[in-house]
Amino acid sequence: MSISRYIAVAVVRCSWAATRLPARQHVHAPVDTLDVLGPESRERLALEGLELRLEHVRALSILVVMRTLLIIGTDKGAFLARSDAARTAWTIEGPLFKGWRITAIGRDGGRTFLGVNSFVYGATIQASDDLAKWRQVDGPAYPKDGTRKLTQIWKVQPAGGALFAGVAEAGLFRSDDRGDTWKPVAGLNDHPTREKWMPGAGGLCAHAIVGDPTNPQRMWCGISAVGVFRTDDGGRTWQSKNRGVTVVLEDKTTRDIGYCVHGLAQDARDPNLIWRQDHKGMYRTRDGGDSWEKIERGLPSGFGFPLVREPRRGALYAVPLESDEFRMPPGGALRVYRSLDGGESWAPSGKGLPGEHAYDVVLRGALALDAQDPPGIYVGTTGGTVYASRDAGESWQALPFGAPRVVCLAAFTE
Predict the structure, then answer these.
(1) What is the tens place of the pLDDT at every residue in 357-392?
(2) How far is Cα 55 from Cα 18, in angstroms, rounded to an integer?
(3) pTM (2 decimals)?
(4) Cβ–Cβ under 8 Å, residues 152 and 117
(5) Check whether domain 68-110+205-413 has CATH 2.130.10.10, yes or no
(6) ∠ CA(202), CA(95), CA(82), 5° rounding?
């Protein structure tokens, strides 16, 4: 049962009990007790007859305490940052996998996955059901006698009832047992254009995975510096979807590759509506990638890496850099840009980010949202600072610790 239904059950049953009680025969549950009780405890209180007079029921406010868990992946391990209910105070735990580079963070149900890189053991996925005990899963991996080498886990993402991992050297792997074992998605990994794929500055990497909530057979995958591919048949075949985007590495014999996608964001209510931060600009498609249009009004530059969308209000967030040549915030001012109209226009969000002498980069995985209302926005820099906004970008504060170089972030509600 959802939290909202627990609240509804408690209020209705309290109201019923209150109408059948004489005056003064009521019990007050202290507010601080309600604050710490979980949904099951609140339901039990209701079933046991929490006695409130009707006039008190009208003033009843059951406070559901929701806190944010922010997992911070860095060059030297993962850190767990936990907020208070107001998201103004934070505690820091870690590092997990001390000295290992954390390159991806994902969650499927209650299971958390970390993509880790070790100088000794290479690239692996570690899984945990409680964030305390971790185990290495079986795969993903390329054949040992093959020419491709798995050098990094870039993405772990649920889609279409399965779990997918995007890796470098570019490839896509699928798990149907919650990440315990993995198998290659041959339709993409052995695509007819594969021999002509070229790496970008960050390598040849499959780093963006977007599913279709209305159709489990449909999915998009972004590969640098190749482009966006879409499958409509559950991964058996893939089509390049880059018309309208400026090519970066043109191949004169193999068309529709050579595009360097940096990030993808989708409207879950309209899966064909997707936004794309690319090496050559900011783009939007309304037809599932069949065509793209540039949307940069208000942005100081079309170049940047991360892109996320907040589902309730539809706000988009991006972090522009000066250019491909000068990869630093424009004018030395770190700004998270926000669009409230689907990308038609952009403006810098809020106050509290450094307005001068800021030259750190925000990597493609280092911008995240939580699921609270209003949403929390989190951005981590290569200089090791993590900034948080608890009001959808209106104001920002730095978290109280200096991290190693931030590679990726993910926010969850506890």
Answers:
(1) 999 999 999 999 999 999 999 999 999 999 999 999
(2) 9
(3) 0.85
(4) yes
(5) yes
(6) 100
